[in-house]
Design a protein that fits this description.
The complex is a heterodimer of chains A (342) and B (434). Chain A has helices at residues 29-44, 47-53, 69-80, 101-110, 125-133, 148-163, 194-202, 240-246, 257-262, 267-274, 278-283, 303-306, 313-331, and strands at residues 58-63, 84-89, 115-120, 137-142, 183-187, 209-213, 234-236, 249-252, 288-290. With 342 residues, chain A is α/β, with parallel strands linked by helices. Chain A folds into two domains: 2-146 and 319-333, Aspartate/ornithine carbamoyltransferase (Rossmann fold, 3-Layer(aba) Sandwich), CATH 3.40.50; 148-317, Rossmann fold. In chain A, helix 1 (29-44) packs across helix 13 (313-331) and helix 3 (69-80) packs across helix 13 (313-331). In chain B, strands 1, 2, 3, 4, 5, 16, 17 and 18 form an eight-stranded mixed sheet that branches. In chain B, helix 4 (162-175) packs across helix 6. Helices cover 29% and strands 23% of the residues of chain B. Chain B has helices at 78-87, 106-113, 141-146, 162-175, 198-203, 210-231, 245-257, 267-271, 293-305, 320-323, 340-352, 356-363, 365-370, and strands at residues 4-13, 18-27, 30-35, 47-50, 55-58, 60-65, 90-95, 122-125, 151-153, 178-181, 194-195, 207-208, 236-239, 261-265, 310-311, 387-397, 416-426, 429-433. Chain B has one domain: Alpha-Beta Barrel (TIM Barrel), CATH 3.20.20.140. Chain B is built from 13 helices and 18 strands. Chain B is an alpha/beta fold. Chain A binds chain B through residues 15, 22, 100-102, 120, 122-125, 127-128, 132, 142-146, 191, 194, 197, 220, 222-226, 228, and chain B through 196-205, 279-280, 321, 324-329.
Chain lengths: 342, 434
């Protein structure tokens, strides 16, 4: 089956295999549109047809950190497309014996993996793996850096909720004005959040304004560096109520109690200032509530809000499965991505 | 050691104030004759170097190299590291003590300096300031000095505690040598792998603050002042690899105050910024890290105005498998001996208008003076016959695979260089021809 994936590249060999998703920053809006279009196409596709798309293809999931949503959705997505998957985790492999990321990647390649989905505690690890193996690598979360597939599924969630599916195909396109006039407040532990980084790098390119919200220790001024490529797309608003008053979408981030303690932040004070509570929601009954999970109910978000009518949290998970299907098809140069990568 | 004639070149020798066409005769490992063109007509020598269009300068002196021997010869050895030095025009190098084991004893120092190690150029060493570089108990400065130590440092780490640094500066002052400090408050840099700032935020990496460097520099300067006052000594602090504008400014002020402070700047710190890390290139990872553009500009300004005393490479070889790791896990350091001149001429001379004389001074006379190397860093008659002949106009690209070093960890593979070494002579022996 490997022969089917052989790709010819003119001129200099690229550093990274086409179809890799390492950072959202280098995915153009045209590519985002293509991914969203393929997502819609795959979603509507009958099962019998769908399982043919990656039939016989091999996908490895390499997870150095625990994960529920991301791992399961990638795995289910791959299987629904007919691919064979294998899961390698740090706790049940030679990684425990000190095998390097490079050697682990080369081993998976030798076993026939055509694409590696990597979650890793070190920022930038997917770049290393992609350079060392030459395989398409999908970044499923690296350290404090990025979670690009999350940004794509969040984008699809927002576009679907705000605009509904458009056109007969149900596909949504990503244009520079798709989110014009939309303000998204990302709130909480921005410093340690890969979800925040990927969203702050993506959403402003579609015209959204991103408000980063949190205390100084979880949101240093250097976060504005995320906006450098997008002009004024990103700003810091430390007052959560003011951020909520301006936003149409609010993304809450998980707060780890241990982390607050380490930074000498008081949990009760944090909850008072930054929790998305019923009281705060009362003033903004129309706002779209998002959370990448896992949630700490009662810390960054009240349970009733997470379960409420404005919550898109479960939709995010469903969009995750759909978007990750398209990312796998793209990584393996199948489906609508077959022609563009040859 | 046979005679060497170097004819038709332009001698740039800041220590003797010479910058003119001169012919040289090197004899018995010393500079024998330096005369205007033609004066050596008829003189026979075993080797004659035609230096037409070339600059003839004192062999360069690098006060900061890691040669990894003993203990880590898979990265580098004294023989390979000094071969790289010769290729870069260096004729004297000062080996740092963070070998395995740490160079903290007379036995270790003598072993390192022994001729059988195969050094290609003159090798000096700075042993550890504290036993095992643990920052607690001073090494035997007096005995080590007698055995050839040109200074003391715990490089790789700082001498962190006030009392230990005060004791080190005092003990070194009594011997008339320096303490060379790796200025990093390691209490502030745990888990950090690059410069703190917007780039670190974007990459999701923990950053070392300017504060972490400046605090140690400022503390050490305060100690100099206190020791001068309390003990009547004149301690000499040498600040290694300055990387921040704030530390450079503190050094500038201390010099104005009359304290004995010198400092070095590494080529990567005047050439690159933290943007060079790009997609987690571990070849752009070193400590101190690449900083912001304002800091890079301050390194250039410091070298221009005399605050920066010398260029030192901090040559730090690592094996490929060590750098082929996750960014946070890869070791700090890059090689630098073969790219120092090409970067200095390109960035400082061509880019900033620094006279070649000043570049030569920063790489020879000044570092020789910092570590008090008698007879080095000058082409004056009677000096050691340490010389470099380079083509100041040669444009070339550095190719890491052609390096003499055992390691290839450089961010400058394929980078444009200005000025190329054509010959290096160490104590009257030609040790490199390019």
């Amino acid at each position: 089956m490997a022969g089917r994936t052989t790709r010819k590249v003119a001129g200099d060999a690229p550093k990274y295999a086409p179809g890799s998703l390492l950072t959202i920053a280098n995915v153009s809006l045209e590519e985002v549109s293509a991914i969203l279009a393929e997502t819609a196409r795959l979603e509507r596709m009958p099962h019998v047809e769908r399982v043919q798309i990656l039939a016989g293809r091999r996908v490895a999931l390499l997870f150095y950190e625990s994960s529920t949503r991301t791992r399961t959705s990638f795995e289910l997505a791959a299987k629904s497309l007919g691919a064979t998957t294998t899961l390698v985790s740090d706790k049940s492999s030679s990684i425990e014996k000190g095998e390097s990321l490079k050697d682990t990647g080369l081993t998976l390649r030798a076993l026939g993996a055509e694409c590696i989905i990597l979650r890793h505690p070190c920022s930038g690890a997917p770049f290393l793996l992609a350079r060392m193996t030459g395989l398409p690598v999908l970044n499923a979360g690296d350290g404090m850096h990025e979670h690009p597939s999350q940004a794509l599924l969040d984008l699809r969630t927002i576009l679907t909720r705000l605009h509904g599916a458009t056109g007969a195909t149900g596909a949504i396109t990503a244009r520079a004005d798709s989110l014009a006039g939309v303000t998204v407040a990302i709130t909480g532990d921005i410093l340690h959040s890969r979800v925040a980084r990927s969203n702050a790098l993506l959403l402003p390119r579609l015209g959204a304004r991103v408000l980063l919200c949190g205390p100084e220790k979880l949101l240093p001024e250097t976060a504005l560096g995320l906006g450098s490529d997008q002009g004024e797309g990103v700003e810091i608003e430390r007052d959560f109520d003011r951020a909520l008053a301006r936003a149409q979408v609010v993304m809450m981030l998980r707060i780890q109690k241990e982390r607050l303690a380490g930074l000498e932040l008081d949990l009760a004070d944090y909850v008072a200032r930054y929790q998305l509570s019923r009281e705060r929601m009362a003033a903004r009954a129309d706002i779209l509530v998002m959370h990448p999970g896992p949630m700490n109910r009662g810390v960054e978000i009240e349970g009733e809000v997470a379960d409420g009518a404005q919550s898109a949290i479960e939709e995010q998970v469903r969009h995750g499965l759909a978007v990750r299907s398209a990312l796998l098809v793209r990584a393996l140069g199948a489906g609508r991505f077959e022609s563009v990568t040859v | 050691m046979s005679d060497i004639l170097i004819l038709h070149g332009r001698v740039v020798d800041p220590a003797s104030g010479v910058e003119a066409e001169r012919d040289l005769l090197l004899r018995n490992g010393r500079v024998a004759v330096v005369e205007p063109p033609g004066a050596l007509k008829g003189v026979e020598a075993a080797e004659t170097i035609d230096a037409t269009g070339m600059i003839v300068a004192p062999g360069f002196v690098d006060v900061h190299v890691h040669l990894r021997e003993p203990g880590q010869t898979y990265k580098e050895s004294i023989a390979t590291g000094t071969a790289a030095a010769a290729a870069g025009g260096f004729t004297s190098v000062v080996a740092m003590p963070n070998t395995v084991p740490v160079n903290d004893s007379v036995t270790g120092l003598e072993w390192m300096l022994d001729a059988s190690r195969g050094s290609v150029v003159k090798l000096f060493a700075m042993p550890a300031a504290t036993m095992g570089s643990m920052g607690v108990e001073l090494t035997d400065f007096s005995a080590l000095h007698k055995a050839g130590a040109v200074g003391f440092t715990d490089d790789g780490k700082p001498v962190l505690e006030d009392d230990a640094m005060r004791a080190a500066l005092s003990a070194a002052a009594r011997l008339g040598v320096l303490v060379s400090q790796h200025a990093e408050d390691t209490r502030l840099t745990g888990g950090c792998s690059m410069n703190a700032g917007p780039v670190a935020f974007r990459l999701g990496l923990r950053g070392m603050t300017v504060e972490a460097e400046a605090r140690i520099v400022e503390r050490d300067i305060r100690l100099l002042r206190e020791i001068e006052k309390a003990e009547g000594l004149r301690p000499h602090l040498h600040v290694q690899h300055v990387s921040t504008a704030r530390a450079m400014e503190a050094i500038r002020a201390a010099k104005r105050e009359g304290l004995h402070v010198t400092c070095e700047v590494a080529p990567h710190h005047f050439t690159l910024t933290d943007e060079a890390i790009c997609d987690y290139d571990t070849h752009a990872k070193m400590n101190p890290p690449l900083r912001a553009e304002a800091d890079r500009a301050a390194m250039v300004a410091g070298l221009m105005d005399g605050t920066g005393d010398c260029i030192a490479t901090d040559h730090a070889p690592h094996a490929a498998h060590e750098k082929e790791q996750e960014f946070e896990r890869a070791p700090n350091g890059i090689t630098g001996l073969e790219t120092a001149l090409g970067l200095a001429l390109r960035v400082l001379h061509r880019g900033q208008g620094m006279p070649i004389r000043r570049v030569v001074e920063l790489m020879s006379a000044n570092p020789a003076r910092v570590v008090s190397l008698d007879g080095r860093g000058s082409l004056g008659v009677g000096s050691f016959a340490d010389a470099v002949v380079f083509d100041p106009a040669a444009e070339w690209s550095f190719a890491a695979k052609e390096s003499r070093s055992k390691s290839r960890n450089t961010p400058f593979d394929g980078t444009a260089m200005l000025g190329r070494v054509r010959a290096t002579i160490s104590e009257g022996r030609i040790v490199f021809r390019g």
